[in-house]
Amino acid sequence: MTPREFASKYWELDLYTVAKESPLDAVPAAGAENLPPPGQWQKMRVASYRLGEASGGYRSAFWSEIKTFVDKKGKEAITVVVKTIWGKQETKTFLTPNELAYTAVAPFYGKGSPEEVQIMLQLRNRFQKVKLSLADFTKAAFIGLDCNGFVGNYIQRAVKGSHWHRRSATDPGPSTYIASLMKLGTRIKSMDQLNSTTDIFLLAMTDGAGNIIDQIKSTTAEGGVSVEHGHIMITEPATIQKVGEEIHVKVLESAGGVGLVESIYRIQSVTPKGVFRVFRGSKSSHMNVAITKLQTS
Predict the structure, then answer these.
(1) Which domain, by its residues, includes 78?
(2) Which of 91, 149, 163, 256 is most buried, most CB within 10 Å of its CB?
């Protein structure tokens, strides 16, 4: 599965929807036939940029309601239906809040896999009392992806083949720091090394000296703390083209102001230390990046 094919799992998210239920209508207790109510599949678009938790307490309100449908002793349960990134329909029964907690809230932090986003939206539609429609909710960017949320999920799910259910953040994955993701392959330092039609490359924002930026904290004039975040992107294989002195390639990324997008990057030059100067089609701006050839096998 290529990065673009993986992105399409968010752009055209498969969502299983059922009628609204009250707590008394919840799935039978553990040991019973835990089948979800009849429902139907629909397509949703989840492509907003989400860095950290949105203000307003939406994640907290969501989880406070949803966790009442499972108890610590496993006497109540929630069963969900997902369609994996490989197209397989699966059901999963959660018996305790701990089993469900990470899965249900990861999308609020920009870290959700396609399956986790499905589950979060499915539970919201099924159990939570809300004013916004599902479409309006996703457009409003209460959930979404940050840059390593997308790239890390791709590596974890599509490259490493990890199962979608996780109880906590695992490495390498959507919570892995950018510098660590860039170590999952070979750092390249010349334009000549960008000649493969099959390889996938990771691009990470650097300073002028080539140091990868993860997060920079500085003190403001008012005494507060200013945080500058790094950025990581991933290329689509078989899209590299030599155009004059430049190399053009399709890049997938989740970035502030544009969300989860694909655009043409123009790699224009490189220093002896391996700092590449690129023009970003998604932002119509320049950036210094380090480039790693991702190890995919």
Answers:
(1) 3-159
(2) 149
